[in-house]
Amino acid sequence: MRAAFADIADEGLATDRRIAADLEFHEAIFAATHNIFLVSLGAAIGTALQLSFSLSQTRKPMPGLEVSLHRAVCEAILAGDASSAERAMRDLLAESRHTLERTLHEAVRAPEEMPT
């Protein structure tokens, strides 16, 4: 998880490698639960996560807020602080949802704004 986070935070990392690191980060979270159902679920939704990351991570480097939210999740999990980890993950998921919604909205609006 630490290695994946370090890659996420690396401002010089190529977008495709950052997406792979983000996926590795979230897979490590599933593995950290030691819950066979969640580990299986993580594997099953890997493709959906990768698509979501590919759509939303068009910016280079990852915005500071998103890096900070990933850091908070990582630190809380590694510290064994379940309540802080839950809170941090909820914040990260909320920001990720907003980022994806903005990205999709911009993609839909872009053709309308193009000159004819």
Task: Walk me through the structure.
This protein has a single domain, classed as Four Helix Bundle (Hemerythrin (Met), subunit A) (Up-down Bundle). It is mostly helical and 116 residues long. It starts with a helix and ends with a helix. The chain is globular. It has six helices and no strands. Helices cover 81% and strands 0% of the residues. The longest helix has 32 residues, at 82-113. α2 (15-32) packs antiparallel against α4 and α4 (46-56) crosses α6 (82-113).
List the helices and strands and how they pair.
Layout: H1 2-9, H2 15-32, H3 36-44, H4 46-56, H5 64-79, H6 82-113
What features would you highlight for this structure?
single chain, 116 residues, mainly alpha, Four Helix Bundle (Hemerythrin (Met), subunit A), globular
- Estimate what percentage of residues fall within beta strands: under 5%
What is the CATH class?
Mainly Alpha
The percent of residues in helical segments reads over 70%
**DSSP, total strands:** 0
Per the CATH scheme, the topology name is Four Helix Bundle (Hemerythrin (Met), subunit A)
The chain-level structural class is mainly alpha
**Treating each run of at least 4 consecutive H or I residues as one helix, how many helices?**
6
Taken from the alpha-carbon principal axes, the silhouette is: globular
Low-confidence stretches: none
Number of domains: 1
Q: Using only CA atoms, what is the Rg?
A: 15 Å
Mean pLDDT: 85
The CATH architecture: Up-down Bundle
The run of helices and strands is HHHHHH
Instruction: Give the end-to-end Cα distance, rounded to a whole number of Å.
Output: 48 Å
Major β-sheet, in short?
Answer: none
